[in-house]
Amino acid sequence: MMKSIKTICLVGATAFLTACGWHFDNGAAVPAELKTMALESSDPYSEMSMAMRKQLLSNNVNLVPAKQGVPVLRLNKQTSSDKVASVFKQGREAEKVLTLDVEASVRLANGETYPISAKINRTFFDNSRAALAKSAERDVIWNDMREQAARQLINKMAALQHQVQGK
């Protein structure tokens, strides 16, 4: 009896959630004015440029070549650093703080340019006895940080649009 009640509740909850029309809304962060834009960078094949392109495409932004009347997202500067946060008793580095700082600018179709930036910090436990594994782990962390910075830049583009409309 108890098992059938649980089954009925589970089926009812599933039917309720599927019937309410809730779904992920990709692209809601990017305003309509920025749905078609150009992406510029000093190195279009860098990891940050590729991460930014991937995030823009996943937000349903149509990327076109730069021309008059099209908004442009320009990746101006990317700096990365790692600082020692703690050390082992023997004096070797134990933990590092990885920092990624990305500066960009958005030039709207009317010619106005607005700076935006993203800063990401992560901690990384560095064990010199497993150097190869830690090197691969560090690469994964850096890639994740670039993806997160790209998402932050897209969110700031949406906030920028609200600021421009408020003028």
Automatic annotation (TrEMBL):
It comes from the Bacteria. Transmembrane segments: none annotated. It is found in: Cell outer membrane. Together with LptD, is involved in the assembly of lipopolysaccharide (LPS) at the surface of the outer membrane. Required for the proper assembly of LptD. Binds LPS and may serve as the LPS recognition site at the outer membrane. This is LPS-assembly lipoprotein LptE. Keywords: Cell outer membrane, Lipoprotein, Membrane, Palmitate, Signal. Component of the lipopolysaccharide transport and assembly complex. Interacts with LptD. Residues 1-24 form the signal peptide.
